């Protein structure tokens, strides 16, 4: 056997050993969800509700929050019908004082918090000329600062228990910026940095922070996203892309992967979907990726329409959406309390 063959075998053995060690470590971190006290933000609909359903089936004690009391009540009834203990309290996670009050109520009833899952978020779609500073500010407050607010409030309880899990649902949009979603991308990039930094500082305290980066998921969210400029055309491309199986993934599958990553105490994880290839492409060929995204922008709607005014997805319907092309997204909206 020549030197190169020996070196290759050595590298293969080392890689196999590393993977085996990682698997053993992750298995040792796993825990049973039954009885765990879990806070989920943005849990009244969409991915947050899908995650809450799965945790209800696993026997977790759930504290769910969102801004709409009405939507929360609908979600809570469904979760209770699954046999879960549910505390549903409205809270604007953009406001730190409200978050502090919410966590205080949760710990008063549950005693402490074992797991925090940050799902709450907003999406604003349109060209940069349609965006205002307030669009960026609101995205930062909702998608990033809210994560800091909730994390700071639960940390004392996790430290007292010398155990905890925090999951921050970011996005592939927090790893590379997609045209016409700039406020979202900026806030998700910031969230990824915050989440990874928290992991580095808290891991030695047995508090594991997981940053989940999913691509498009069929949660039904386009109906409640915000669209600007030529809002009907923006809603059409966004909702069609969200509905195509080749581009998007089932929300239930995404939720399972996120919860598995939490149980294993993993760090930054990409929720598997065809779009994950774009991350590999960006890492290997960053300039090429930027050129592809710039090319994609040329076929997206131009400035016009309602300009800087905002419209929700359900206010932006056209012949293209809803249509047969958005069937899966429409079904997800019905299933996940998005109507």
From TrEMBL:
Domain Ketoreductase: 36-257
UniProtKB keywords: Oxidoreductase
InterPro entries: KR_dom (IPR057326), NAD(P)-bd_dom_sf (IPR036291), Sc_DH/Rdtase_CS (IPR020904), SDR_fam (IPR002347)
Top-level division of the source organism's lineage: Bacteria
Pfam entry (one): adh_short
Record's GO cellular component terms: membrane
A GO molecular-function descriptor: oxidoreductase activity
Ribonucleoprotein keyword on record: no
Annotated family: Belongs to the short-chain dehydrogenases/reductases (SDR) family.
Name of the protein: SDR family oxidoreductase
Native organism: Roseiconus nitratireducens
